[in-house]
């Protein structure tokens, strides 16, 4: 009984006409009129003002309409959710990711995903700038580190670790720093920031560093460290192989900053899409954690 007349009421409210509502519902005008009359009798309120020329909501009708519209929208969303769960992923996906991490870690997995789902089309834009997903029409973004407060949905895919390291040749010539203050005596290879992140006494600390080299390229900084030009702080995916091959040495491990997150971020209206849901799950499942001994 609670549902009877609700759809008819919403159609009449939105079309301001019993006749138009009946046409859109493919039922008779008499049926719509009976349902509205029964609904008003049940609620003991008048929902519409009726004249020969116009139908409009009463004050009570306006309040009731807002709630009924939300209920019908919820039912539509529920039906779409069930349909999407049963659907195979297909259509276009537009994503963005940081340049190096996207090249090394994300795009190879996206390629594997596309082999499993041939009806999916992917456009990827790699940028170290944080793109506006709604403005750019993106379905998905891969982001590293701490997230800003947002209305977006975020799923954690894994963690990354920043390492302080230098080549054995550099350390043999200039010595090995034992604490953060020792960094002031060394040539530090700088990225886009003037400070490095550490953990000291269980608290995160930013320590200002300096040097004669500054690049906005992780690969350029790795190469400089390998050639003995100084000490560098970089995420694990830049230095993993070189640390394992002893081409670089990890330093100040007791001061290493906590791991930070690798995230999939997407607009709320994308979370029911099979292609987005499956791609995010695929990345979370196959993104292999980096372990450096």
Question: Could you explain the architecture of this structure?
Answer:
With 293 residues, the chain is of the alpha/beta class. The protein has 3 domains: 6-86, Arc Repressor Mutant, subunit A, CATH 1.10.10; 91-160 and 260-286, Periplasmic binding protein-like II (D-Maltodextrin-Binding Protein, domain 2, 3-Layer(aba) Sandwich); 162-255, 3-Layer(aba) Sandwich (D-Maltodextrin-Binding Protein, domain 2). The protein has 10 helices and 14 strands. It has helices spanning 6-15, 18-25, 29-43, 59-86, 99-116, 133-136, 168-174, 218-226, 236-244, 274-286, and strands spanning 48-50, 55-57, 91-97, 120-126, 140-144, 153-160, 162-166, 188-190, 195-200, 203-208, 213-214, 231-235, 249-251, 260-266. The strands form 4 sheets. It has a 5-stranded mixed sheet, with helices on one face. The chain has a 5-stranded mixed sheet with strand order 11-8-12-7-13. Helix 5 links the parallel strand 3 and strand 4. Helix 1 crosses helix 4 (59-86), helix 2 packs across helix 3 and helix 5 crosses helix 10 (274-286). The chain starts with 5 loop residues before the first helix and ends in a 7-residue tail after the last helix. The model has no long low-confidence stretch (mean pLDDT 89).
